[in-house]
From TrEMBL:
Domain (Mycothiol-dependent maleylpyruvate isomerase metal-binding) ranges: 9-134
Taxonomic path: Bacteria, Bacillati, Actinomycetota, Actinomycetes, Pseudonocardiales
Domain (tRNA wybutosine-synthesis) ranges: 171-216
Protein's organism: Saccharothrix tamanrassetensis
This protein's name: Uncharacterized protein (TIGR03084 family)
Biased composition annotated in UniProt, kind: Basic and acidic residues: 243-260
Pfam family, one: MDMPI_N
Chain segments carrying region Disordered: 236-260
Signal peptide boundaries: none
Length: 260
């Protein structure tokens, strides 16, 4: 299974690579406040490196974890980065995850993950930061079936979203029904759950990665738990962020988080 996820991660990275490779200047501001395109790529390069470290040297990663601070998402963003370095880091991460022994979980800033889940998390973050870059360049990306990975990790992170916001983790199940880009239905949770989330997969992913305000999206919730979850949903590890302002997508820049 990890091979298929890594194939999709490679494809998602290639989409972003195609956006930035032709650019002579990476100083264009993105919707993340204070971050240029260079910051976005540098952050991805740093996170790929740390993920590879976690997979190959858990003790060294543990030392990194002990120094983690609330500004974790800013780590590495100010480091100079080249396209060649980012590409090399992506390959190193792929090789590191493939080498993890079966049954072994990779430590992380959130809960430990299987190599497949780590690859899914890297795909999610690559897609999210790719959205910031696409927004900065005025490019509308075509939604793909790879969104299912982003949605899956967001659904799996429901309890984590409550936890990092200092809220009790709900015991009630939530049914999630999302329309994929080709019209297929993606579902999670029991069919008879009282709490439900429905909408286009793209909109749900934009919400869960905090790239759009909920009011700008066609994601619906029924039930108190589902409603509260959509107010705090995050697919990424780390502290909660304020998200994006309403209407920020129309302005081309936002004052929200966008740095996860």
């Amino acid at each position: 299974m990890i091979t298929a996820v890594l194939d999709d991660l490679r494809a998602e990275s290639a989409v972003l690579d195609d956006l930035v490779a032709p650019l002579d200047d990476w100083s264009t501001p993105t919707p993340a406040p204070g971050w240029t395109i260079a910051h976005q790529i540098s952050h991805l390069r740093w996170t790929d490196r740390i993920a590879a470290l976690a997979a190959t040297d858990p003790a060294a990663f543990a030392r990194e974890l002990r120094t983690a601070t609330p500004d974790l998402v800013d780590r590495g963003a100010d480091e100079p980065v080249t396209l060649t370095e980012w590409r090399a880091g992506r390959l190193a991460l792929e090789q590191a995850l493939l080498a993890v022994p079966a049954g072994v979980k990779v430590p992380w800033f959130g809960p430990p993950m299987s190599p497949t889940s780590m690859a899914t998390a890297r795909l999610m973050e690559t897609w999210a930061h790719g959205q910031d870059v696409a927004d900065a360049l005025g490019v509308a990306r075509e939604p793909t079936a790879r969104l299912k990975h982003v949605a899956h990790i967001a659904v799996r992170a429901l309890g984590y979203a409550f936890l990092v916001n200092g809220l009790p983790v709900p015991q009630e199940p939530v049914r999630v029904e999302l329309a994929g880009p080709s019209g297929e239905l993606w579902t999670w949770g029991p069919e008879d759950a009282a709490d439900r989330v429905t909408g286009p997969a793209l909109d749900f992913c934009l919400l869960a990665t905090q790239r759009r305000h909920r009011d700008d999206l066609a994601v619906d919730a029924v039930g108190e738990v589902a409603q509260q979850w959509l107010r705090i949903a995050q697919a990424f590890a780390g502290p909660p962020g304020p998200g994006r302002e309403k209407g920020s997508a129309d302005r081309g820049s936002a004052d929200g988080r966008g740095r996860s």
